[in-house]
Design goal:
With about 190 residues, the protein is an all-beta fold. The protein is built from no helices and 15 strands. A hairpin with a 7-residue loop joins strand 13 (about 160-165) and strand 14 (about 175-180).
Length: about 190
């Protein structure tokens, strides 16, 4: 005689034998089990949907009390490493958190390939940004590299690179430009 299912005094349901599964659906579509080493939730068909009908978040924790993934009620997502938030989605895009060593985005290629940072935008007129990289000092813009559309708005295949800096107490301004023909202008927007 082997007991495969027990209902304990407090109401807990216990499967006291490893490798026995709770099966749901006509075709065992969902399985929940423990195999003596790991615990599993296995979906055999369709999507696996986890819903929250409250103001709380859905959380995946790698260990008790340590966040791993947090999905908030507004749809934002937070990713953690070793208990520290590293990535989050916002209504404006994404935020990445760096540590004291300045480690942030690192692109790594393990083979004979290259890493690429790309911005793609269908702009309507010349000098509109397609990719804008900006550095801030305590929330104030101090420098930027701006990849802008060139004058050929029909083919949309030319562009300029603008380099911008900020002097103390002023706004960010263009200091150097490389135009679509390769000419370089320092202190002028028309090399």
């Amino acid at each position: 005689y082997t007991s495969y299912l027990r209902i304990k005094d407090g109401g807990d349901i216990h499967l006291p034998v490893d490798d026995k599964k709770l099966l749901f659906g006509a075709g065992n579509d969902l399985e929940i089990f423990h195999n003596a080493t790991n615990s599993h939730i296995r979906n055999q068909t369709g999507d696996l949907i986890i819903d929250s009908n409250s103001a709380g978040s859905v959380k995946l924790r790698p260990k008790i009390g340590e966040e791993g993934v947090v999905i908030a009620t507004d749809g934002s997502v937070e990713l953690y490493y070793d208990g520290s938030k590293k990535f989050e989605t916002t209504s404006a895009g994404i935020k990445l958190t760096t540590d004291a060593n300045g480690e942030g985005i690192v692109m790594y290629s393990s083979g004979s390939t290259f890493s690429k940072l790309s911005g793609d935008a269908n702009r309507a007129s010349e000098n509109q940004s397609c990719l804008y990289i900006q550095g801030n000092w305590n929330g104030t813009a101090i420098g930027a590299i701006d990849f802008v559309a060139g004058p050929d708005t029909t083919n949309k295949d030319d562009g300029h690179i603008k380099f911008q800096t900020t002097t103390s107490g002023s706004s960010i301004a263009e200091r150097m430009r490389i135009d679509s023909t390769g000419n370089v202008g320092i202190g002028t927007t028309g090399p």
